[in-house]
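From the thread on structure requests for the teaching lab: each student submitted one protein with a one-line request. Submission from student K.M.:

"Model Complement component 1 Q subcomponent-binding protein, mitochondrial from Casuarius casuarius, tokens only."
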Amino acid sequence: GDKAFAEFLTDEIKEEKKIQKHKSLPKISGGWELDVHGTEAKLVRKIAGEKITVTFNINNSIPPSPEEEEETQGEQKPDEQEPDITSTPNFVVEVIKDDTKQTLVLDCHYPEDEVGQEGEDESDIFTIREVSFQPTGESDWKETNYTLNTDSLDWALYDHLMDFLADRGVDNTFADELIELSTALEHQEYIKFLEDLKSFVKCQ
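Reply posted by the TA:
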């Protein structure tokens, strides 16, 4: 059984490498520095007196495709049926001003139904879910700090928050490029996982 499994993995790895779009990770325009640790990626950008970091994790970042249910019942369809898998991770933007001890933290995500909204003009491809202040430099965030949930937020305030992000380079273009980067990273990690799995299965 293990031998068949290893052979299957070998083929799978070949296939995945064939469709791999990026041999190296795509860059994000606007002078962001990328730092990757396993499945977590961090983008850092410094502008006049501020440091902006965007962190995301590719785990669980691929939305389930509606076709999956059908596939489990019937045989898998030929290759052309497979939709492009895209990774749309939640991401956290932290804005740190040099002269304050506080960090403004904005928790952003890609709404799952945004794909169907192309008719709307200038619709944002990501939304801000929560906003809070956290003490700068502390890795553990305090649950006791007030967190503003944007569900019930005055839209004018929400618009200002979106503009605030856009002024710091976190806009639709950035969000698009982040999907590219995340998808490439996810694919890279997936291939690595298959390779590790293969070595593990073959190990006697």
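TA comment: Strands lie at 33-37, 40-47, 50-57, 91-97, 102-109, 127-135, 147-149. The two ends are 13 Å apart (CA to CA).
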